[in-house]
Amino acid sequence: MADEVELSLPVEAGLVVLARLTAATVASRAGFDVEEIEDLRLAVDELCLAAIRGRADGRIDLRFNHDRGWVEVSCRHRAVRIAEVGADGYYGTGLSTLILDVLVDEHGVHQSGGLRDAWLRKRRTIRLD
């Protein structure tokens, strides 16, 4: 049975630590090992930082869904200047996309009106030791 955790934060880089802590707790409950938890923490950090780049106010709303073996995180925020969004759907030069490609199994972004939704999904690695 999947669990869901929601977190809403003011747009402030110093509060992203709360998103990382939530990601670590959710991943631990999903059975992830220490390395997988750290990968997810870094990925959520990148997702949040991409959301708040170029913004001085507002909120980001995160939703963490998980079950045994997988975690999905979505991040919703209001776009301040849609023109800032790069061709890859993230801010900047595409570095966010490259980082997320390495850390998670799937990720994407959806723009609709003034809202942007970014999401990621990570599955636990099955080890046959």
- Tally of structural domains: 1
Can you count the beta strands?
5
Low-confidence stretches: 81-93
Mean pLDDT: 81
Could you state the order of secondary-structure elements as H and E? EHHEEHEE
Radius of gyration: 14 Å
CATH superfamily: Histidine kinase-like ATPase, C-terminal domain
Notable traits:
129 residues, alpha+beta, Heat Shock Protein 90
How does the SSE layout of this entry go?
Blueprint: E1 3-10, H1 16-29, H2 34-52, E2 59-67, E3 70-78, H3 95-103, E4 106-112, E5 115-123
Antiparallel strand pairs: 1-2, 2-3, 3-5, 4-5
Can you describe what's shown?
- The chain is an alpha+beta fold.
- It has a single domain (3-123), classed as Heat Shock Protein 90 (2-Layer Sandwich).
- Helices cover 33% and strands 33% of the residues.
- The chain contains 3 helices and 5 strands.
- It has helices spanning 16-29, 34-52, 95-103; strands at 3-10, 59-67, 70-78, 106-112, 115-123.
- Strands 1-2-3-5-4 form a 5-stranded antiparallel β-sheet, covered by helices on one side.
- Helix 1 (16-29) packs antiparallel against helix 2 (34-52) and helix 2 packs antiparallel against helix 3 (95-103).
- It is globular, with a radius of gyration of 14 Å.
- Residues 81-93 have low confidence and may be disordered.
Short characterization:
The protein is α+β, with helices and mostly antiparallel strands. It is built from three helices and five strands; from the N terminus they run E-H-H-E-E-H-E-E. The chain has a five-stranded antiparallel sheet with strand order 1-2-3-5-4, covered by helices on one side.
